[in-house]
Amino acid sequence: MDATLVLAKVGVVAKMFDDDLGAPLWGTPPVDPLVDIARAVTTSDELKSRIASLTASFEHFNKKDFDKIVGTPSEGTRKAFVAFLKFRVPDDQIRIDREVAEPLDLICLLRDYLIHARNRNYKKALVFFGLSDPISDFSRAWSSVLFAFSEVLDRLLEIVSARQQPRIAAGPLMDETLDLVVASIQREKRHVLETPKVASLLREIVSQGAILDADLAGIFGLEVEGLRRLLFPLSESVLIVLPVDRHSTRLEVVPEFRALVQSGELFKWDGHV
Questions:
Q1: CA-based diameter of the chain, in Å?
Q2: In CATH, what number does 189-267 get?
């Protein structure tokens, strides 16, 4: 999961709160935590640091204004955030609980397990994020958590957009930020995107929705290790790569890039097709 895209979505959500919900998202902007979550993860300590930073950003939710508008004080910034969202979008309270509040709670539960050694209900978090016990691949674990947070941001945009406020411009903004991210990926991953078979492999993944790397390798007559060498450089940007067991990995194309893969736009730049 590309952290640049996630941070762009955070910016869109923050603007949405300002423009359409009547209160800033942040009490004070979480500058340092957001800078940290953009960094790569290869070790256990780095995973702990990124999750700590992500959950620290939740502490910057604008509790003071949220409580004032709702009219009832909440215990903690996350609860104030959820209460405010339900107050502004009362018809979607069940969805807010399931698709916004619960994933944020599970991210915090995973933090408590990894950093504070609190074991209560930790397996619920591991199952939700598709993680092994103990966690062995820290980069993929962070990608899974970041993807879940990205999904929360997407659901927030959908929920608020459903209020049909005429000022909402989430679609064009997302298109604009996605264009910037695509251009960045094309620059940084050009050597991968130009590799023979990569476009066909990605299109097959999109057509399947999700597929095990071993099955994909079989379709194209490749060795699994060779396929991984081809595709795994895209795991921080275009691909969601999640371990299934010791021998296989599930591959998905990040939702925002699926149409670009199918149309071939992801592989076009400077006249290249």
A1: 63
A2: 1.10.10.10
